[in-house]
Design brief:
CATH topology of one domain: Rossmann fold
GO cellular component, one term: peroxisome
Strand content: 5-15%
Radius of gyration: 26 Å
Main location: membrane
Structural class: alpha/beta
Pfam families: NAD_binding_4, Sterile
Number of strands: 15
InterPro entries: FAR, FAR_C, FAR_NAD-bd, NAD(P)-bd_dom_sf
Strand order of the largest sheet: 3-2-1-4-5-7-12
Protein name: Fatty acyl-CoA reductase
Length: 500
């Protein structure tokens, strides 16, 4: 039997997506509509948020860049998007009887919804990520037409392992037991068990992902679990360099580019592992096709990573980023960028104290004296809290096996390989990081490309101001040393004078 291509396989199949308003969710939904034109309905589980109901959030979603081509060229395909009001963190997912009935014709589930904060309490992480996953699985078990349940995890779900295989990992305490603990124990009692439960996991987010994988891999559904590494701006789609959030490397790049971050605790020689969001999504869609066509009774694991194919070290990524940020600066920088990476905690914290915290207090004092509202100390507190959480990952290195990913690529027909590109070997990091920075300016910081000339002029002024400040500081240090030397001469003479 001839295997259908990915668009052919998705034809007339109805899809359910959680997390469609998130960074990767937007790319997934837009890609399905663009590249699988005959796809059935796509049901989006969206909860009310602040003053926006589910339908209003969909309209806001459709105005964003991933859906621009669809709006302009294929508006009829957007009619396939059906909003279902839902809250996946509660039992029954707050689904009405009518909405639940509509979902009974779903063939593929993409479960992407997750809270990605690293600093969640244990109870919050389990409720937002693990209990919600259990609720989605419960619904999926009622779908008689289900052919693929795809869970989007992370390649940093087993941080205690130096090598991550493409297989299931069982948690020491079962997800069911942890869920029971969350539902029956007080917050304080649960937090008291935090270190015992987390073990070698660095944060509650990673721990919840490990629990979710264990739960999903044993649920008895046709399962595919994909583990992207650090997901960054798009390689090609919707446009090169598109990104809409400040998570991970994007936030570091913005902080450093605006002169806020002057030091980072990082081993510059370690390989980073980053994958563009569109490549990660293409692998996710292809995994659904593989699960659906193979009809395997065992879950398929896929490490969507790049380090074995096209590695780049943190140090090289920093140098390329610095070069392109200096040529294409962000608007409204706080100071001229500078600083460096170091693997020494002592040197890092000395740099943070002298080049970030002390200047922030001095400038905030100046703002108060001049009648302005201080904000720099508050910014530094937030930045350093974020860096403390991220630097665990920049001071370690992992090997991610991705034999299953390579095997999947080889299975694709030529047209699928072109449409659902996922081979990270094609990334030219110098060109990619340039587009990443330009995309960050335009889509994340809302800096129109027309602001570049002015931003470059501001950078020139800041460069001379930075040089002048360093000169003044150097002269001050020389004066201090000279004054100390002069004042110390009588004492030295007295000490070395021979006693009579």
């Amino acid at each position: 039997m001839i295997t259908k291509s990915i668009p052919e396989w998705f034809a007339n199949r109805n899809i359910l997506v959680t997390g469609s308003t998130g960074f990767m969710g937007k790319v997934l939904v837009a890609k399905l509509l663009l590249s699988c034109p005959d796809i059935g309905d796509i049901f989006l589980l969206i909860r009310k948020k602040k003053c926006f109901d589910s339908h209003a959030r969909l309209q806001l979603l459709l105005q964003q860049e991933p859906f621009r081509i669809l709006r302009e060229q294929y508006p009829e395909r957007l009619m396939k998007l059906i909003v279902i009001h839902s809250d996946i963190t509660v039992e029954g997912m707050a689904l009405s009887i009518a909405d639940k009935e509509r979902l009974m014709n779903v063939s593929v589930v993409f479960h992407m919804a997750a809270n990605v904060r690293f600093d969640m309490s244990l109870k919050t992480a389990i409720r937002m990520n693990t209990i919600s996953t259990a609720n989605v699985v419960t619904l999926a078990k009622q779908l008689s037409l289900l052919e693929a349940f795809i869970y989007i995890s992370t390649s940093f779900c087993q941080c205690g392992e130096s090598v991550l295989e493409e297989r299931a990992y069982q948690t020491k305490i079962s997800p069911e037991s942890v869920i029971h603990m969350v539902n029956t124990m007080t917050d304080d009692a649960l937090e008291a068990m935090r270190f015992k439960l987390l073990g070698e996991q660095p944060n509650t987010y990673a721990y919840s992902k490990a629990l979710n994988e264990d739960f999903v891999s044993r649920c008895g559904l046709p399962v595919g679990i994909i583990r992207p590494s650090i997901v960054i701006a798009s390689y090609k789609e919707p446009v090169p360099g598109w990104v809409d959030n400040m998570n991970g490397p994007t936030g570091l790049m913005i902080g450093a580019g605006k002169g806020v971050i002057r030091s980072m605790l990082c081993n510059a020689n370690y390989m980073s592992d980053m994958i563009p969001c569109d490549m990660a999504i293409n692998a996710t869609i292809a995994l659904a096709w593989q699960v659906g066509t193979e009809k395997s009774t065992n879950p398929i694991f896929l490490n969507a990573t790049a380090n074995q194919k096209n590695p780049i070290s943190w140090g090289d990524a920093l140098e390329l980023g610095k070069k392109h940020v200096f040529e294409n600066p962000f608007s409204q920088p706080l100071w001229y960028p500078g600083g460096r990476m170091t693997s020494s905690k002592v040197l890092h914290w000395l740099a943070v104290i002298f080049f970030q915290i002390i200047p922030a207090y001095l400038l905030d004092s100046l703002l108060i004296v001049t009648g302005n509202k201080p904000f720099l100390v508050r910014v530094q507190i937030r930045v350093n809290a974020g860096l403390d959480l991220l630097q665990y990952y920049t001071m370690k290195q992992w090997i991610f096996r991705n034999d299953n990913l390579r095997d999947l690529q080889h299975r694709l027909c030529p047209s699928d390989k072109e449409i659902f590109f996922m081979d990270t070997k094609v990334i030219h990091w110098n060109e990619y990081i340039l587009k990443y920075i330009l995309g960050t300016r335009q889509y994340c910081l809302k800096d129109d490309p027309s602001t570049l000339p002015r931003a470059r002029r501001v950078f020139t002024y800041l460069y001379f101001a930075d040089c002048l400040l360093k000169l003044i500081f150097g002269i001050f240090l020389v004066w201090i040393m000279y004054t100390w030397t002069i004042s110390a001469k009588p004492l030295v003479a007295m000490l070395i004078q021979p006693s009579k």
